[in-house]
Amino acid sequence: MTLTRSMARFTAGLAGAALLSAAFSAQARELSVSTVLSEAFPWGQAAEKWAELVEERSGGELTLRVYPNSQLVSGDQTREFSAMRSGLIDAAVGSTINWSPQVPELNLFSLPFFIPDEAAVDAVTGGDAGTLVFEAIESRGVIPLAWGENGFRQVSNSRGPISQPDDLDGLKIRVVGSPLFQDTFSALGADPTQMSWTDAQPALTTGAVDGQENPLSVFDVARIDQVGQEHLTLWNYMNDPLIFAVNQQVWQSLSEEQQAMLRETAEEAGAWEIAMTREQESERLAAIQERGVTVTELTDEQYQAFVDATQSVYEKWAPRIGEEVVNAAQAAIDAR
Ligand code: X2X
């Protein structure tokens, strides 16, 4: 008698669990998240962290699946924003550089020697300029949620140390597919050539290009010194923030709770990744030096020579970015 009753309860329990899990899977939804770099890099780890937090907080109702190596855009990272806007990709943790062809305001961060240090980055992203940049993204059909950081970009090459603009003379430098970079490296007398990250590594290996520019974390993890890049100059000429974002239709299809949760988890993952990236800079530099790379630091005077040589880029691009955004950023930097 007791046995039968507990059996019945057990069976009812099972049926209930089955019902529950059916309801659950009917609701469970997976969003694709594009990144350029994999989880070997802080950038990929930022996206994975976001996915982890979403899984935890949503109880499995909403999941993020990260697709690294620009695979959702066949390696062409400058198409990521358009793909997210059109709904081919649900979400992304992307670089301001790669999205700048579609969102001109994002060129703000690529202005050479404009944002000199971490405090300046935080003042810009956390202030009015950051708000204007997010509005610019939203006006183009994508919902921005939070900031992350690829880092300050440093230049490397296989020929010799770079400590003045003349040292770049005639060097073939791989740059990302955004026209501003073409202007910066031309102004410095180099011979810039645009290509995706996917194409950059073979080009460095074969010597088709002499140099490249990327944050220390990318240089370190991708072992760029092992493809002949033996000279590295620390010039902090620009910072490359990352942005966590979601396609607008996807965003509108979510409940308010889900939206709040997605934003909160993106902010947490972004803050976590920014702190980690910055903390790791000095050990990455030490590791790079240990592998035999010549590291050049600039005196104030040498730094100023680069600033002067790229002044024309600032003048050409500030109006394209928008005076309001540039002025807001400048004010935030001055007040930091
Ligand atoms: O292509 C690059 O250099 C990289 C990986 O840093 C970006 O996607 C901006």
Describe what you observe in this structure.
By secondary structure, the protein is an alpha/beta fold. It has one domain: D-Maltodextrin-Binding Protein, domain 2, CATH 3.40.190.170. It is 51% helix and 19% strand. Strands 1, 2, 3, 4, 5, 6, 7, 8, 9 and 10 form a ten-stranded mixed β-sheet that branches. Strand 5, helix 7 and strand 6 (191-194) form a beta-alpha-beta unit. It is globular. Bound molecules: (2S)-2-hydroxy-2-methyl-3-oxobutanoic acid.
CATH architecture: 3-Layer(aba) Sandwich
Could you give a short account of the major beta sheet? Answer: 10 strands, mixed
Q: CATH class, anyone?
A: Alpha Beta
Q: What is the CATH homology-level superfamily?
A: Bacterial extracellular solute-binding protein, family 7
Alpha-carbon Rg, integer: 23 Å
Summarize, please.
With 336 residues, the chain is of the alpha/beta class. Helices cover 51% and strands 19% of the residues.
Keywords:
336 residues, alpha/beta, D-Maltodextrin-Binding Protein, domain 2, ten-stranded mixed beta sheet, 14 helices, 10 strands, binds (2S)-2-hydroxy-2-methyl-3-oxobutanoic acid, transport
What's the topology here?
Layout: H1 2-27, E1 29-34, H2 42-58, E2 62-67, H3 80-86, E3 91-95, H4 96-99, H5 118-125, H6 128-138, E4 142-157, E5 172-175, H7 179-187, E6 191-194, H8 197-206, E7 211-215, H9 216-221, E8 231-234, E9 239-247, H10 248-252, H11 256-290, E10 294-297, H12 300-309, H13 311-321, H14 323-334
Parallel strand pairs: 1-2, 1-3, 5-6, 5-7, 8-10
Antiparallel strand pairs: 3-9, 4-7, 4-8, 4-9
Helix pairs in contact: 2-11, 5-14, 6-14
